[in-house]
Amino acid sequence: MRILVATDFSPRSQRAVRRAGILAGQSGGGVILMHVVEGAGAREVARDVCEAQRMTVELVTVVPELFRVECRALVVAGALPDAVLDAATAREADLIVVGAPLRGTARDPGRMVRNLIRSAPCPVLVVNRPAAGPYARVMLPVDLTDASARALRSAASLGLADDAHVTVVHAFEVLGKPKLSGFGVPHEQIDGYVEGWRSSFAEEVEAFLGAEDLAGRDWVRRVEEGRADEVIANLAARTCSELLVMGTHARTGIRRALLGSVTEAVLSVGGADVLVVPPPRSGADSRLDRPGRPSAVRAERPALRVVSV
Questions:
Q1: How confident is the model at residue 142 (pLDDT cuts 50, 70, 90)?
Q2: pLDDT for 220-232, tens place per residue?
Q3: pTM for the full model?
Q4: How many of the other CB atoms lie within 10 Å of CB of 221?
């Protein structure tokens, strides 16, 4: 596995470097340690490039997770995130690793991370947590779409779910539920209505995993009622998940500027690391893309039956 990790030598990017070293050690892959020098004056940029090259080589020698890993330093002058995207494409990176942006700063590094994810040629891992070892608890939120299928395949191909406790979660909202109490429907019947929806979605999740040849995995399945972003954040906190794996949908035009409300919300919360798997580029032959993937069986939604006495 080829891992490109971007560093600005800050503590948050140090976490990304250590995580990249751990992942490379697990997979027997290599790390490209990259720093981008931004600036206007040619003389200043040249001086900063030389200094960054020295610091990058020094970083390789002091980070324990890089000691037994093939590691190359790459320092370029350019603009973020384009320089990282160009390097990842040219070197056929399997994974880009970046530190989670600091919040509340004058400059908005969060915007650069989001722009990187939107145009990335491969999955992007945003590191929030200190890296102490391989991921032990991984959560895979699924919305039963091709985006989630790509995320599942990516987690499997990168080895992120091999030795971890994995939870697959699907969030659902019940059609018309907020109005039922106002119509005088008893709570017991509403609860039964919700459980019927939960059961039908549980069948869809199992069929979805089966379509990806993942039904036999010893993964916990959770089907939770509520808004997707809230369900994911709350369950991740309760299960102490260290990594969330999420897919983004292909978009065009103005909608291409959006990652999707759920992914945006999860990235903004922080806490766990987040692996974001983008759609394959148009016309690209992606190893994670399987257009012929069979569709999951859609279970019939239960209807609410109001019984009068």
A1: very high
A2: 999 999 999 999 9
A3: 0.86
A4: 15
Q: Residue 290, Cβ neighbours under 10 Å: how many?
A: 14
Whole-angstrom Cα distance, residue 53 to residue 43? 16
- Please state, in angstroms and rounded to a whole number, the distance separating the CA atoms of residues 109 and 143: 28
From the CB of residue 215, how many other CB atoms can be counted at a distance below 10 Å?
14
Q: Cβ(125)–Cβ(17) under 8 Å?
A: no
Looking at 101, 131, 161, the residue that finishes a domain is 131
- CA geometry: angle 247, 102, 113, nearest 5 deg: 35
Residue 283 backbone phi and psi in degrees, to 5: 80, 0
Q: Does residue 14 sit in the same domain as residue 57?
A: yes
CATH number at residue 152: 3.40.50.620
Contacts of 225 (CB under 8 A, 6+ apart): 171, 172, 173, 174, 194, 197, 198, 231
What is the rounded CA–CA span in Å between residue 119 and residue 195?
Answer: 40
Segment 289-307, tens digit of pLDDT: 444 444 455 566 666 554 4
DSSP 8-state assignment for residue 103: S
Query: Domain of 225?
Result: 134-304
Q: How buried is residue 295: exposed, middle or buried, by Cβ count under 10 Å (0-12/13-18/19+)?
A: exposed
Q: Does residue 166 share a domain with residue 36?
A: no
∠ Cα 85 236 259 (to 5°): 35
**40 shares its domain with 171:** no
Q: In angstroms, rounded to a whole number, what is the distance separating the alpha carbons of residues 181 and 262? A: 28
Rounded Cα distance between 152 and 17, Å, is 24
Q: Quick one: which of 186, 19, 7, 193 has its CA closest to 87? A: 7
188 and 48 in one domain? no
Assess contact for 216 and 223: CB atoms under 8 A: no
Query: Each residue of 2-54: pLDDT tens digit?
Result: 999 999 999 889 999 999 999 999 999 999 999 999 876 677 788 889 999 99
Q: Which residue has the tokens 């050690």?
A: 25
Same domain, 23 and 126: yes
